[in-house]
Design brief:
disordered C terminus; Alkaline Phosphatase, subunit A; globular; four-stranded antiparallel β-sheet; 13 strands; 17% strand; 12 helices
Length: 465
């Protein structure tokens, strides 16, 4: 049987509700909507961290951040010992490619054989493929221009749309799909850098939105600084209507939506290329994002903390030859489930180091996922979320601190019930669940299993590996 190709389409910082198929009143995404209509649409998918690098490492390793150890976006490096999905699939005859924004710096064993990169954290800027493309067209002076960071890094780019990063990424993906070695199946990640800031569609972008006509989110009440886990993540946390006024927020949203619709157009071009080469029917397409964006919620943009706007992500699995379309699946799933799901689908062994759960029974319509909780974490805050509640928990050096939200009555996470006597049992149950989870996923690098009753989920130095 011919092995299926795998195409992972990823946007950066894309709010899970900013799609027509998700019921958004303004933003237009006809091509992604078609993938959703013909695919399986998970509406309660969650990433494991709200920052790009740890989230992307979790996707590729199938591991929680506490296990792979990556929590920041700097260039200190990613451990070479970590398992990697593309490297693993090379053992089964797959050729591998990364096109666009990799943002997994200094990881020598990531497993991508072919790369065409656009993001400055992936290489010195003058070595980037997109920068050199712009240089060839005498446009490199405008590369990654941040504009006025005090106002959302939001502006109209002087780079013409035909040379924009979005069009370039799609062009490179199409070129790879047409020129690859057709004797082997492929796994390719095509990762668009945006709608992550800078919110800078080209001055001649064919998709524009009227800021004054936009429908602002229902939950617009400001709550900056209310959270015990507030952290001043540079200027992003100042990006709010309270700081700059509603009109600046509306303008930023209009540009955010323009970038989304432009990316949607490019995804349509990539899918059409698969159709033209005869590969569409045998290609598993997964569309997702590394994490979300406030996208106007709480009257601000960008990211931070453990709100659903940040940790909920879009997730579409498109493979009509195997999976019947499902407009909406509301079961709780995690981004680390992608790795084991693909292994099960390819009928290959799921490495023990992978912590996600296969979604294949769900995709086949046989059974619901076993998961009743999802986990999301920063280095200083651990989150457990069920259908009914969310607990964010940390330690301030003297005592445990936290947030507890009753999502049934407070879906926008405004009322912190952590110290409410009425919710004491809920709080304590979820704290214990967090502790159980941390013990379950912990992978000490130096220990003696013979002296310990260890959980079966540990593998380092485990004789039963």
């Amino acid at each position: 049987m011919k092995k299926p190709n795998i195409l992972i389409l990823m946007n950066d910082q894309h709010h899970a509700g900013c799609f027509e198929y998700a019921g958004h009143p303004d933003v237009k995404t006809p091509n992604i909507d078609r993938l959703a209509a013909d695919g399986v649409n998970f509406r309660n998918a969650f990433c494991q961290n709200g920052i790009s690098v740890p989230s992307r490492v979790s996707l590729i390793t199938g591991q929680y951040p506490s296990t792979h150890g990556v929590f920041g976006s700097d260039t200190m490096g990613i451990p070479a010992s970590l398992i990697s999905l593309p490297a693993y699939l090379q053992n089964f005859g797959y050729q591998t490619a990364m096109i666009g924004k990799k943002h997994m710096p200094n990881w020598p064993t990531h497993g991508f054989q072919y790369e065409r990169l656009c993001y400055h954290a992936d290489a010195p800027v003058r070595e980037l493929h997109y920068y050199n493309y712009l240089k060839k067209h005498n446009l490199h002076a405008h590369y990654d221009e941040l504009g006025d960071v005090e106002k959302f890094t939001s502006f109209d780019s002087p780079i013409p749309n035909e040379h924009s990063m979005e069009v370039w990424t799609a062009n490179e993906a199409i070129n790879y799909l047409r020129t690859r070695d057709r004797s082997k199946p492929f796994i390719a990640e095509v990762s668009f850098e945006r709608p992550h800031p800078p919110l800078s569609p080209s001055h001649d972008c064919p998709f524009s939105y009227d800021p004054d006509a936009l429908t602002l989110p229902e939950n617009r009440r400001e709550n900056i600084g209310d959270s015990p886990f507030y952290f001043n993540r540079n200027v992003e946390l100042k990006w709010s209507a309270a700081t700059h006024g509603e009109q600046v927020l509306r303008q930023a949203l209009a540009r955010y939506y323009s970038l989304i619709t432009l990316i949607d157009q490019q995804i349509g071009r990539i899918v059409e290329s698969l159709k033209e080469t005869g590969d569409l029917e045998n290609t598993i397409i997964i569309f997702t994002a590394d994490h979300g964006d406030f996208a106007g919620e709480y009257s601000r943009m960008a990211k931070g903390w453990s709100y659903d706007a940040i940790c909920r992500i879009p997730m579409i699995v498109h493979f009509p030859q195997r999976f019947a379309p499902a407009e909406r699946i509301d079961e709780l799933i995690e981004q680390i489930d992608i790795f084991p799901t693909l292994c099960d689908l390819l009928d290959i062994h799921v490495p023990r180091a992978v912590q996600g759960k296969s979604l294949l029974p769900v995709l086949d319509g046989v059974t619901a996922p076993e998961r009743d909780t999802v986990f999301f974490e920063y280095a200083t805050c651990k989150t457990v979320r069920t259908r009914e509640y969310k607990l964010n928990y940390g330690f301030d050096g003297e005592k445990g601190i936290g947030e507890l939200f009753d999502l049934r009555n407070d879906p926008h996470e405004y009322e912190n019930l952590f110290n409410s006597p009425a919710y004491r049992d809920v709080r304590e149950t979820l704290i214990r669940r967090l502790l159980d989870w941390q013990l379950e996923i912990q992978q000490p690098v130096n220990w003696q299993p013979a002296d310990t009753n260890y959980p079966s989920t540990r593998w380092f130095n485990n004789p039963t590996r």
